[in-house]
Write the structure tokens for this entry.
Amino acid sequence: MLWRTRFAPAPTGYLHLGHVVNAIHVWGIARAFGGEVLLRIEDHDRTRCRDDYEDALLDDLDWLGFVPDVGRTDSFRASRHGHPHGHPQRQSDNEARYAAALASLGARDLTYVCTCTRRDIARQAPHAPGEEPRYPGTCREARHAETESLARRVCMDDGMELFDDRRLGPMRQSPADQCGDVLVRDRHGQWTYQFAVVVDDIAHDIDVVIRGEDLLASTGRQLRLAAMLGRERPLHWWHHPLLVHPDGSKLSKANRDTSIRERRAAGVCAAALLGEAAFLSGLLPAARDLSIDELPALFR
Ligand SMILES: [Zn+2]
């Protein structure tokens, strides 16, 4: 089986050790099982993304030795200077794709205009700090005119989404109970992460999503959205551990928050950073230098 997966950072800051953990899993699993890696820059939120962060993350990937099979780093750089080749995938280029996906759902009466503010939702659906707010469907029956807001929600009807996580085993999630109707575009016209990734994963023929287990709760709604958008190809999931010491103790702030850029400037070599990230996500029993070529063996 040829598994295509993706590494999809957002250029809203510098890469840090958490990104390296994800990249180790993405490239290691792809290389171990004969898959390929697509690089996608997730810059759908134009208010937070910056070109210099994109430059920095491309540079850091090159330095660490992560080479995408689809969307080479030099193709991203070249496209910025008006020399498109190699099809770099940036979400900011995909406006028409998201609009068409939304229109296809709208034509089947699966979307509606939402005029609620964040504060409205907090009032309608009180939730504990750290708990996910569930949108109670206030605007579903209201039939607001298209002109009242740019915000659109997709109906999440009752029912379980079942999936088999490659690491965690069988899972069941109910999007209607977890989050309610999913926001796909906000009132400023920004596409949401949930919607953009699902539409892109279909367009990019992604077979397996490899990501941190902090995102596990959003899998069911993404599967539901994908089915609503007509995805037929099976989609597999592999949620990996986040950064933590193998004994469960917390990471120091320096390990957790320091950017790859700062570590490079301080003279750390790429193999040492890879080894540190592999150790801190439980892939190695102790920190040591680790080369890119050793990654597949961690997953076989
Ligand atoms: Zn609403």
Q: What stands out?
A: The chain has a mean pLDDT of 92. The two ends are 15 Å apart (CA to CA).
